[in-house]
């Protein structure tokens, strides 16, 4: 509300004016409630229990409404949806880890690749852009997402051709084309996995929204793990 009040009057929008919002790591606040003194200890104990329940209820209600401002969310999503060197490098690293995991039939490597992959950022940019009708944000996220998908497909295509040519043809190792498709490759090509993936994607999307609005990045790890087990 304070930011909207200031920006409506030109602070932060006019030339040579700046407004910033800095998070406070810790603060102290007095409740101002006076202690009740009573001769009856039972009544004092019951009053403290009632106050404790009311305080817990108020804290819970505050946690429901305590969310980041729209400007904070949009700026964070916009930064994650931009195409830069870090995005390209992480995409290539994640593609290499995923390719090795698919060839080695290792679900752990596939999960690790999804945790490294930054593809969730452009998807969030597209989603938030649609919600707030920010077409520039949608365009940025869509461009970055398409570039990331193109890099993943190209890297996987050339990596597969290379390993098929130089791989173990005897089939004694798990790196040869004679052992393909393995169980991990087959599991990502079944029709049943599509509707199961859609059911998993609904609560995962809700978890992403709560994590972004509440500033809780720990939930994104679980979402990435659940997404790594789904078909492409």
Briefly summarize what is shown:
The protein is mainly alpha-helical and 232 residues long. It has a domain at 71-228.
Structure description:
The protein contains 10 helices and no strands. It has helices spanning 2-8, 41-65, 70-80, 85-103, 107-116, 120-132, 135-166, 183-187, 192-214, 218-228. It has a domain at 71-228. Helix 5 (107-116) crosses helix 10 (218-228) and helix 6 packs antiparallel against helix 7. With 232 residues, the protein is mainly α. The relative contact order is 0.09.
Distance between the termini: 42 Å
Largest sheet, strands/sense/barrel: none
The SS-based structural class is mainly alpha
What percentage of amino acids are in beta strands? under 5%
Which residues form runs of ≥5 with pLDDT under 50? 34-39
Radius of gyration: 26 Å
- Mean pLDDT across every amino acid position: 74
Helix content: 55-70%
> What is the count of helical runs?
10
Which shape, going by the Cα principal axes? elongated
Sketch the topology as an H/E string, one letter per element. Answer: HHHHHHHHHH
Oligomer: single chain
Strands, count: 0
